[in-house]
Amino acid sequence: MMKKLIIWVFICGLILFSFYFLINPERDDVTAEQDEPKPRITQDIDSLIEQAILNYRQLNEQHDQITVHKKSIKMDDPEVKNWIIHTHIQSAVLQNEELEGIELVDRAMTYKHNHDQLMKWAEKEHQIDVTDSEVDDYIQKQLEHMDSGQETQPFYTKLSQALNLSETEYFYEWEYDRMAEYLVQDQLFVTYQELYPQEDNESLEEYQDRIVILIEEDFQQYQSE
């Protein structure tokens, strides 16, 4: 079955590997191997995670609070820590950037803002809102897949170990909101397929690209209002 890789550039990144999602009937495993950009040859995922955590610790030691976009950010906030570490890794892998300091915090808070906006837009404009039960079921599928030894991407396991969390704690304490967003993205795509059917002589790839563009345009319009 052909797999279509969709890059959600317009929401400025999610987590390292769920930044992408596959358009096919079996989208239950975000740990499964995808054609994502690989970490730079000179820096493997272990060193990226180590550097990301080190950067956060240095920021936390140097600043109690940082003002970003006229908002005061408490550096010891677990949610801030979460987004900073993920943003460092994501930027290194996807944009080949070495973010640190205020620039790293600024980018992380931008990603968090876009995450929050996407969730609000999906609920307000399309009545899409995933339940705790749906997120729980989805996380359990990821854990079962990892327990079976089928995980092809080591990111989740390595990061949970670096944070001294069990895999279960990691998904519920660290990735819960992003797992919810992954499900919302999935439902958005289905909703737009219902709103905009495939046209005659339009290939599947062209159709999927058009759906992503339509979602991007509508979301950007919502953000500009």
Automatic annotation (TrEMBL):
Entry keyword set: Membrane, Transmembrane, Transmembrane helix
Entry keyword Membrane: yes
Transmembrane segments: 5-23
The protein's name: Uncharacterized protein
Organism: Aquisalibacillus elongatus
